[in-house]
């Protein structure tokens, strides 16, 4: 993997997420926006942890269903435990490919993969819209002729309809074998006053970032043609909570996002 120049003049979603989680792999421009957003909505760091907790629970469930291959697009900066660690706790031979477009994530991926079993872990440096490239490179680690769990968590709200969000999901799922699963978490305005949601969207836009918080109908459209797994489309904290520990502070907060897992028949 080669190094790529890091743009520190504008925030990046992966580094913002890292800042929300208390990480150190972010820049002043990320921290500045993060502080402005949390000053307006102090619950955001708890929401970020609730999203991550959902990812862990969904991964445990999928591993329990016998899924041994995972493609995580928009992975963000690694935070312990990483998806492959969660999966391999249940399925030791699980294979995982991570994908992100932030060079900071690339630097972590290089360290993460160094000394690892090359047959079990991979990383693709690409924009989520480069679906052909992602699939081609992922095929170096994953057998796309067998079921794969595709995770698009906290990603698609950064792609508007005009940017091809639905096409990305359609192209990726079309390439997966029957028995594969799609996992999505996505910010929504449905659980918050419209004025507050619009304020957050405006703050992202002012920093050159797209934030399309879809309502329930628009979120559910991502799963057209797939079979939703119970409990269906729900808030993150409501998806099989017995598979993980509650996030500190979630009892007085709301994740502000819809989540769902669906199977390709």
How would you portray this structure in words?
The protein is of the alpha/beta class and 265 residues long. It is built from nine helices and eight strands. It has helices at 13-20, 28-40, 44-64, 83-90, 103-113, 131-138, 165-174, 194-206, 216-220, and strands at 69-73, 95-100, 121-125, 149-153, 181-187, 227-228, 234-235, 257-263. Strands 1, 2, 3, 4, 5, 6, 7 and 8 form an eight-stranded mixed sheet that branches. Helix 3 (44-64) packs parallel to helix 4 (83-90). It is globular, with a radius of gyration of 17 Å. It comes from Streptomyces silvae. Keywords: Methyltransferase, Transferase. One of its GO terms (biological process) is methylation.
